[in-house]
Amino acid sequence: MLRVFLLLFAAWSVTAAPFDSTYQIPISPPTLIQGATILTAAGKQIAQGYVYFRDGKIVDVGVGDWQGDPPANLREIDGSGRWLTPGIIDVHSHLGNYPAPSYESHRDGNEATAPVTAEVWAEHSVWPQDPQFPLALAGGVTSMQILPGSANLIGGRGVTLKNVPGRSVMEMKFPGAPHGLKMACGENPKRVYGSQDKSPSTRMGNVAGYRQAWAEAVAYQQSWVEYEASVKLAKNDTDKESKSMPMRDLKLETLVGVLEGEILVHNHCYRADEMAVMIEISKEFGYSIAAFHHAVEAYKVADLLAANDICAAVWADWWRFKMESFDGIKENIALVEKAGACAVVHSDSAWGIQRLNQEAAKAMAAGNRMGLGLNEANAIRWITINAAKALGIERITGSIESGKAADLVLWDGNPFSVYTKTTQVFIDGALRYDRAQGLKPVTDFELGHRSAE
Amino acid sequence: MMKRLLFVLITCTALWAQAEDLIVSNIKKFGSEDSFSIRVSNGEIVEIGALSLEEAHVIDGGGGYVTPGYIDSGSTFGIEEVGLSTRAEDQKYEGEAMGAGFNPSLAYHAGSSIAPSLLAEGVTHVFLKPEIGKDVFAGQGTLVSLSGQTVPGKSTAVFAYLGERGRENAGNSRAAALQRLLLGLEEARLFVRKRRAYESGSLRELAFSYQDLVALADVITGQKKLVIYVDRASEIESVLAAIEPFDINIVLMGAREAWKVTEAIVSSNTPVILNALDNLPLSFDRLGARLDQPKLLQEAGITFAFMTENLYSDTRMLSQAAGVAVSYGLRWQDALNAITLNPALIWGEEGLGSVEVGKNATFAVWDGDPLEVTSKTTLIVIDGKLINRKNRQDLLKERYQSLGDGGAPYVYR
Questions:
Q1: Which of A183, A448, B24, B203 is the most buried (most CB within 10 A)?
Q2: A319, A335, A361 ranked by CB distance to B373: nearest
């Protein structure tokens, strides 16, 4: 019996977990981009530099001309007059979950049937044929997190995707990226449930709802600890079998994943006072918050965010579309940066995701107008390495450094200008978009529509 | 006595100089390094060039770039203070009594705290757009100034929604929406011809209410334009053909597939209002949406203006929309025209939309390229008056810019 158990255990540990990434890095030639202005997101701007990458990884980056030994099949790209940045990363997107066209049957982002639905996974709603994915690619977006919506206090797991075509979401999943957990403060959950005369209908109801969920998660975690301890102490096989294994609870399993640090909390939270309350809850139950999303009032508590190592992910200028966004200011991101916290520009929009560079530009300009002395080397971090940090993939991508993924964007000018567009986008060294050559993915949905010709 | 009279005279002269003449000096047109001044008198631009700076209140433009004030051709600013908050919203009439007759500009909030934030982005005028309520006709549209002092002018348009939004208010068919639109025009034509019979009660009963007929009568007589929100190419063609016999002035709005039917639009001389940032195929009516549509319409000879349309793509994004259109092939001056001169002409305010002698003195001065996302205004003049752009957002920034400095509690700053 023990042998059977061990065999089962071994089989379980070597087999891929369900829904694991099946994304494969395509084979592409070793590539040298030379002569470009480079924003590495890991230091200063390089006026005239090169990047050499092969087998999906950046090998070398530097000033001037590359001095390496060129392989026979080297692909050379003239970067003169162009700017090179890491691939843009959006920490907050609903592409695939709210795809275009946006008909009722396509709306798969909010399991708005109970205030806590930690058991649902956004990836199980992703439609890979959403024609908005290629539009984001044309905007330089190479990775993004798809999150459940904000109807619920705890909406479910988010997933980080490579912006590559796939027949299933598994073919798009970013290998090694942790899951996110979507939580939501404020107006949305209390409106959705309050309007049905259910809890929560107030912000205090929201807080009670989070705390109750975490209390259940702690108890569930404990039941497994006790079970495993009792199995370990069992005198013999019969004794071992007599211990009853707790039943898996998908909702609490996700929350325990957070308590154990495997799943990162992405907390939709506009108002400063609510962010402070959410930090208290995280301390009460012993988890960390990776990022506050839509943190329109982050500038009011930027010191608190810095002290607790929490990123603030925000729009550059969205404001007043609901009461909790009324105090949005354009200097928000810059003030978060000034306080030493992790500033991220996100989209939450299939329009905005196409122009995250312009959004960062607005934030940079607003900061400079108040004398913060920001430059392109600061601003690029808000849409690359800081976003990667929030997603827990900063060791893999998000900056131009040797050993990192060759997720790169070439621009026809300074990316922090309204007139600048991408020219080429590489993901893991593979050319996925080339504006001049007309190379772009075409989703199944887009085929054969006379009206789009 | 004589002394006192002299004193009064001197005071009056000083006031006259201050109130009547303003010179904004040291400004440029973007693309040129020649600096000049603008003299403003009685709300009008009276002189442009190298001016004598005497006898005027002079403001140094700091070498900035001047543009006409920007006009957003479709926004709910001033009739929608904050989203998802019904008691702060007046842009939509959901009763049964009227459609075309609804005039949301009567609720326009000139003192809105939002205005100074929009002014800071160079927007001086907004065309108030009613949102669709229960009829195919949504109500009337009015161009308003953000100066904070003006009550809105006369409404100059009636809005009708076809496409997906119109069909919902017409028993769930696009065909019925167009039929409802045509019925409104037919009844209004009858109302105009037989007004006396209508008033005396001897005309047959009409489907549209008195308020609706009064508004639509202005469309029939050419005093108002009919703005038709429609996206699908085939629907644009069919509505243009169906409306042609009425010989009225129409404006297409949305029109995401206009580029496919430019001939019909050109031959009917119809202007178009675009949301230039929207290229999403969000419905089967919009599969043809594309970012280079402004360039395509320009090449076809169609007059167009830009709108920001809703709270998410806020009025603050108007110049960004123009800039993006430039990046997709539109000439810079044509993009600027789409948020200045073109809307002024489309909405019948010929005094606005350009910086020229004889025109209304409504302009902005910018610290950089006026269409660039990193630029901001340094001053705004509306109707000859310098406008205070200080806003809630500035005050919030000032309150929180030095966190934890041990100073006074935030609410006492």
A1: A183
A2: A361
**Are residues B272 and B304 in contact, defined by beta-carbon separation less than 8 angstroms?**
yes
- Listed in order, the ranges of chain B carrying CATH 3.20.20.140 are 70-359
Q: How many CB pairs under 8 A join A and B?
A: 125
Q: What are phi and psi of B8, to 5 degrees?
A: -60, -45
CATH number of B70-359: 3.20.20.140
Q: Which tens digit of pLDDT belongs to each residue from B331-370? A: 999 999 999 999 999 999 999 999 999 999 999 999 999 9
- Give the list of residues 6+ apart from residue A401 with CB closer than 8 angstroms, or none: A40, A42, A58, A61
The per-residue pLDDT for A258 is 98
Report the predicted TM-score, pTM, of the whole model to 2 decimal places.
0.94
Give pLDDT tens digits for B189-242: 999 999 999 999 999 999 999 999 999 999 999 999 999 999 999 999 999 999
β partners of residue A439: A434
Do the Cβ atoms of A418 and B323 come within 8 Å? Answer: yes
Q: Closest approach of chain A CAs to the CA of B308, in angstroms?
A: 13
Domain boundaries along the sequence of chain A: 87-211+247-398
Q: Does domain A87-211+247-398 have CATH number 3.20.20.140?
A: yes
Judging contacts by C-beta atoms under 8 Å, the chain B residues touching residue A325 are: 83
Token pair belonging to A292: 């506050």
Mean pLDDT, rounded, for B114-138: 94
Residue B341 identity (one-letter amino acid): L
Question: Residue A170 class from Cβ within 10 Å (0-12 exposed, 13-18 middle, 19+ buried)?
Answer: middle
Strands in B57-60's sheet, in edge-to-edge order, are B44-49, B36-41, B21-27, B57-60
pLDDT of res. B87: 82
Phi, psi for residue A148 in degrees, rounded to 5: -60, 165
Cross-chain Cβ contact A302/B324 below 8 Å: no
Sheet of B70-75: strand order equals B70-75, B123-128, B137-145, B157-161, B225-230, B250-254, B272-274, B304-306
Question: Which two tokens mark A332?
Answer: 């928000």
**What sign for the dihedral angle of Cα B24, B29, B35, B36?**
negative
> Once rounded to an integer, what is the mean pLDDT over residues A116-128?
98
Give residues 381 to 400 of B whose Cβ lies within 8 Å of A: 392-393, 396-397, 400
Are the beta carbons of A51 and A400 closer than 8 angstroms? Answer: yes
Q: Coil, helix or strand for A159?
A: strand
Examine residue A101 and say whether the peptide bond preceding it is cis (omega within 30 degrees of 0).
yes
Confidence of residue A9 (pLDDT cuts 50, 70, 90): very low
Residue B10 has pLDDT above 50, yes or no: no
Structure tokens at A192: 């959705």
Nearest residue to B242 (alpha-carbon basis) of B186, B284, B298, B294: B186
Q: Which residues pair with A408 in a beta bridge?
A: A86, A426
Question: In terms of DSSP bridges, do strands B250-254 and B225-230 run parallel, antiparallel, or are they unpaired?
Answer: parallel
A302 touches chain B (CB under 8 A): yes
